[in-house]
């Protein structure tokens, strides 16, 4: 809700300033936002690539917006909906202008190699769910942006921001083989990170291809982000995830064994979760030697536009404003007790999770030292082994005695706060 507070303050100080919202969340709740938030002048719907220039020009010139596709706005106290904007070929988009100051310290930049997702997961609010479309830029187009970032800003790390960078396996192999070969040929020394689905990592999956991933690793790929979201096939089917537990496990182990770090999203708690399912989730995470308290404490967020959101709205379980957070009640009170126990300590465990991520990345890359929050540290794999075992243990303990989960997790939190401090002190090195 803070964005609305900022918008109101801007309008108070500069009433003629035009304020626009965009993105999936605003697109799915656009009418309600315009009804409630008088400081918002317009909402650009969907991708907005073909909307933002003509829409912004019209707003700045106080010209009518009726002819601009992809805008919802207020006119004469009425809300006008021009529908969602057109899908623009990505290679036609100009390279974003960037500030040198923005990249001076981090030497990291973000690019968008693709848009959309062919999946239709029930928890997701992606605009692409309207038609399950996925579009990518050409490998040449992506490479030219990376080359420009290296040339102009001396960027050393590229983050790719999109729902699914790779898309269908056959196209992924073609696109990223060409991109990797060009990056290797250019010898830029740029590391890159990307987003991937596990769908094509079945027993005979097209992406279970060592040569392909070794080529990408040679080109600078160092980390992938994947959405696992559940530890049972029943839950994944309920979420309409096209991957199974086996796909997810196989993808994680296959890629990490090749030296590519994998981070993944996971949803431990759903409104209809059972203790049995929580236990299966806990076992799945331990099979991956998970060290993230956040993964063990995460719960479903009801996102506007998602099937989960629509279902709960039809059942009368949501409250206005729909663009605000939507709390829900767990159908199983014992699951609620376990969830409450975990959420009490999520914030306090964040620094430990960050340390574990840094250590895990170093181990995947075969490094004996790492940098954690500007500190040089020796890497001790036994720290991660103990963390994974203890997270699994406390998970089983919380499930077996839900009413005592908060107390058990409090002791766990205290132990790992001490363990964290000791590790930092005992393993510090010169940076």
Overview of this protein structure:
The chain is of the alpha/beta class and 431 residues long. The chain has 2 domains: 2-81, no CATH class; 99-337, Aldolase class I (TIM Barrel), CATH 3.20.20. Helix content is 45%, strand content 13%. The chain has helices at residues 2-13, 24-28, 30-36, 52-60, 100-104, 139-153, 169-186, 210-219, 233-238, 245-257, 275-287, 293-297, 307-314, 333-343, 350-364, 381-400, 405-426; strands spanning 20-22, 42-44, 71-75, 78-81, 108-111, 114-116, 134-136, 157-160, 191-195, 221-227, 261-265, 369-372, 375-378, 428-429. Strand 12 (369-372) and strand 13 form a beta hairpin. Helix 11 runs antiparallel to helix 16 (381-400) and helix 14 (333-343) runs parallel beside helix 17 (405-426). The two termini are 40 Å apart.
Which structural traits does this protein have?
single chain; 431 residues; alpha/beta; TIM Barrel; 2 domains; five-stranded parallel sheet; four-stranded mixed sheet; 17 helices; 14 strands; 45% helix; globular
Topology:
Elements: H1 2-13, E1 20-22, H2 24-28, H3 30-36, E2 42-44, H4 52-60, E3 71-75, E4 78-81, H5 100-104, E5 108-111, E6 114-116, E7 134-136, H6 139-153, E8 157-160, H7 169-186, E9 191-195, H8 210-219, E10 221-227, H9 233-238, H10 245-257, E11 261-265, H11 275-287, H12 293-297, H13 307-314, H14 333-343, H15 350-364, E12 369-372, E13 375-378, H16 381-400, H17 405-426, E14 428-429
Parallel strand pairs: 1-2, 5-8, 8-9, 9-10, 10-11
Antiparallel strand pairs: 2-3, 3-4, 6-7, 12-13, 13-14
Helix pairs in contact: 6-7, 7-8, 11-16, 14-17, 16-17
